[in-house]
Amino acid sequence: MALAANIFRLDRLTRAHFGSMFAASATAAADAPVAMPQERSLRQPVEAGPPIIEVSRLRKTYGSTVAVEDVSFAVTEGEIFGILGPNGAGKTTTVECLSGLRARDGGTISILGLDPQHDRAAIRECVGVQLQEGSLRPVLRVGELVDLFASFYAQPADTDQLLDLLGLTAKRRAFYRSLSGGQKQRLSVALALVGNPKIAILDELTTGLDPQARRETWGLIESVRDRGVTIILVTHFMDEAERLCDRVALIDAGRVLAMDTPVRLAEREGGGNHMRFQPSGPFDDRLLTALSEVNDLEHQGSRVVVSGSGDLLNAVMHALATVDVEAKDVQLESATLEDAFVRLTRRPTRRLEGGDGR
Amino acid sequence: MSTSTATLTTRPPRRALGKLIGLEFKVALRAPVGLVLGVAVPVMLLAIFGESGAFEKKIATTSITYRTEFVPILIGLVLVLIALVALPIPVVNQRESAYLRRLSTTPVAPRWLLAAQLAVDLVLAVVAMVLIVAGDVLLFGVHAPGQWAGFILAALLATLALFALGLVIAAIAPSAAAAGVMGTILLYPLLFFAGMWTPRATMSPLLHHISNLTPLGAAVQAMLNAMQGTFPTIGSLGVMAAWVLLCGFAAVKLFRWE
How many CB pairs below 8 Å do chains A and B form together? Predict the structure, then answer.
């Protein structure tokens, strides 16, 4: 993963768990020019209540290609449920079966008690969809598109309010073709919501957006959920899932590999913590590898990366102190959803650690 | 958010079709391919031909002047330009850009959009045909069709045949560019057999026979008959009807929404 992401994580970690104790060593990180992310709210995962969406043993094939092998999950009303997975994992096919765009080959789907295959008209009325790709009519204006789509639904949302919510009021008279990528994406979200849906399915919401636009879109999704809409979010961005999702299902090769809250998934499947530092002088690797907290040690140029679990930081600092070596530019990285993702999907990695051979 | 339940209204509101058609008219003005190609160009040709004295001459041994013969030929030009060029390209564009797919996630099926676009193109074609007939009759002294019913029936069948052919292009073209090429390639033989460059009366027997079997060859023959006061033959009407059925069936069979 990118260095910036490490720094970013250390920053979060430092603030969350180490407080001022570690702040001095982490100044480099704190000064990093990464916008301060809003700490994930401490809301409780929504798990109570009956499911609004139930998918059981979903299967979909295209000819001899199996797109979805066996996918089951349930989503509770008001949840933001993430569907994660590498490209070609079957994420989009799964949500296409949910929205009634495709007919499944096996399993059952229940949305608000309806079957997307048999109650297509009702599903279209109450499920808003944002497609992964595609564009709207270039020669129509924003206001025209929103009014047009509003006319499709029996009980549409107030379009003025909706444009306001999405920050598009000033663009009402702009042609679709003249919008920026972020504006197009926001309009696409607006059209997914214009029918006052109970459920919104958003596929690759922020792909192709710049970091600023991504953050704006995230805030928007949270405010949509706050209006009572249940959201299914398809993404391959781990930071997006960590920030937004109450729970995520990790899908690969058409199967659900794991399903939990992002935090628990990272803890359970992410493979421990990593500490990276610049030693002030040479030392014997065995000094650290002998520690019970350390699983692995790797040299990267003049830097050292130690992987392990438990109170890794204190154990390493303490051991180094016994041989009068100082650890400079310490960066600490806790297991993230991305770690869990990479481990579970076993793709070639960009990781810096050697791993524990799993 | 309102608490509408899923089982309530499931029929799309009627105002949706009105909105779709209204917007397609706006699009027809903003991106005026059909308006310029299908209406302005033929009407401009009408004016040029109208000023040309050469069009008073009779074709070969017939009693028909070039000016009269060019009433149905210009109608054929209107139809190929609107139905084969202006119509398919936007449809293919909307399939390529997944706009049709986007619509199929709403209560309104994408065929409503197609219907709205066909309606607008149809209006353009009718306007152009009316301008051509009216211009020729009122300004350039062509006799009004003696058989109005036959003339309108022939024009209607020709319109349906060409629109169905345009929909076949829209159905099978893999890209908007390909649709443009296909329309342009079909345009020349269709207009040739309509007599655009060689009046049908001067064609060799073989070419004349082929012309009788093409939609525009049959259309020109049928409309000329009607202009001279005789009802179009079953043969020429039948050829057009066959094209309508053949292309209509192919378009329905082959059309892909995504």
Answer: 104
Q: What is the number of helices (H) and of strands (E) in chain B?
A: 12, 0
Helix then strand then coil, in percent of chain A rounded to 5, is 35, 25, 35
* Host H or E run for residue A213: helix A211-226
- Nearest Cα residue in chain A from B105: A124
Of the partner residues A99, A151, A198, the one whose CB lies closest to the CB of residue B16? A151
Range(s) of the domain holding residue A311: 3-37+273-333
Please tell me the distance in Å from A130's CA to the nearest CA on chain B: 8
User: Cα(B10)–Cα(A125) distance, rounded to whole angstroms?
Assistant: 7
Stated length of chain A: 358
Q: What is the CATH number of the domain that holds A239?
A: 3.40.50.300
Q: Do B73 and B194 form a contact (C-beta atoms < 8 A)?
A: yes
Contacts of B166 (CB under 8 A, 6+ apart): B82, B83, B84, B87, B88, B183
**Pairing mode of beta strands A294-300, A273-279:** unpaired
**Element housing A57 (H / E):** strand A51-62
Q: Residue A351: what pLDDT?
A: 39
Nearest chain A residue (CA) to B28? A139
Chain A residues with beta carbon closer than 8 angstroms to that of B33: none
Q: How many domains does chain A have?
A: 2
Report the C-alpha gap between B92 and B108 in whole angstroms: 19
What is the C-alpha to C-alpha distance for residues A297 and B132, in angstroms, rounded to an integer? Answer: 86
Determine contact, residues B220/B73, Cβ cutoff 8 Å.
yes
- pTM across the whole model: 0.78
Residue A260 domain-assigned (yes or no): yes
Residue A291 inside a domain? The answer is yes
The partner residue sitting opposite A196, judged by closest CB among B1, B18, B101, is: B1
Q: Which residues of B52-89 are buried (b: 16+ CB within 10 A; e: fewer)?
A: eeebeeebeeeebbbbbbbbbbbbbbbbbbbbbbbbbb
> DSSP assignment, residue B31?
S
CA B189 to chain centre: 15
Q: What gap in Å lies between CA A262 and CA A246, rounded to an integer? A: 7
pLDDT tens digits along A294-350: 888 889 888 998 888 778 888 899 999 999 999 989 988 877 888 888 888 875 433
DSSP classification of residue B141 = -
Tokens of B2: 């309102």
Complex confidence, ipTM = 0.88
At A208, which amino acid appears? G
Q: Are A15 and A157 within one domain?
A: no
Contact A58, A109 (CB under 8 A): yes
Query: The tokens of B153 are what?
Result: 């029936």
**Phi then psi dihedrals of residue A199, to 5 deg:** -135, 135
